[in-house]
Each structure stands twice: as structure tokens, then as C-alpha cells.
Amino acid sequence: MNPDAPQWSILVCDKGYVLAGVVRPHPSDPLRIIIDRCQVVRRWGTTKGVGQLRLTGPTSETVLDPEGDGVEQGTWYIMRQALCTQEASLAWTRFTS
């Protein structure tokens, strides 16, 4: 992975929320994670579904609601976590900077 682009993840959560960000373990609670650069994906803007965000990153039609660093999320609300490819991680870093 390019050191200029941290490893991004796409998180599909309860109630249909889709988050994108850099995930790290919670320092004291194994049932929680912390998401840095957290973005709520309001509109995917893809032609091939949410998986496209994981493979190639956001598109010009993607609409995000930024939440910033240090967002805590309980793992029981996460239905799926997918690591982004290096290409997508670079795209997410550029798109949100």
C-alpha cells in the first residue's frame, strides 16, 4: 500500500448506512472500532453498485457527508466491511482531501 494513501474500507451498516473511512481498533473496547476520515455515503454515484466504491473509489456523482476523524462505531451495527483496493484507497484520499 502506498504510504500516501491509508487503507480505506467500505462499511455497510444497519439501517442501510454506508460508511467509508480508515478503520482502526478501539483502544479499550473490542466490540467497537474507530473510523478516521469517516464519510457517510449519501449517494453511491456508481453504475455497478456499492462494490464499485471498494474497487475504484468514489465517482464524480458520489455524494458524501463528512464526519471526520475519531468516529466510534459498534461492530454489532456493521453488516459488512470490505477493504478497498490500493487504487480505490488513493481515489478516496484524493476525493476527500
Roughly how many Å apart are the termini? 18 Å
Structural class: alpha+beta
What is the N-to-C order of secondary-structure elements (H for helix, E for strand)?
Answer: EEEHEEEH
Strand percent estimate:
35-45%
Topology:
Blueprint: E1 9-13, E2 18-25, E3 32-43, H1 51-55, E4 63-68, E5 71-74, E6 78-83, H2 86-96
Antiparallel strand pairs: 1-2, 1-6, 2-3, 3-4, 3-5
What does this structure look like?
- The chain is an alpha+beta fold and 97 residues long.
- It has a single domain (9-96), classed as Roll (SH3 type barrels), CATH 2.30.30.
- The chain has two helices and six strands.
- It has helices at residues 51-55, 86-96; strands at 9-13, 18-25, 32-43, 63-68, 71-74, 78-83.
- Strands 1, 2, 3, 4, 5 and 6 form a six-stranded antiparallel sheet that branches.
- A hairpin with a 6-residue loop joins strand 2 and strand 3 (32-43).
- The protein is globular.
Descriptors for this entry?
2 helices; 97 residues; alpha+beta; SH3 type barrels
Summarize the structure.
The chain is α+β, with helices and mostly antiparallel strands and 97 residues long. The chain has helices at 51-55, 86-96; strands at residues 9-13, 18-25, 32-43, 63-68, 71-74, 78-83.
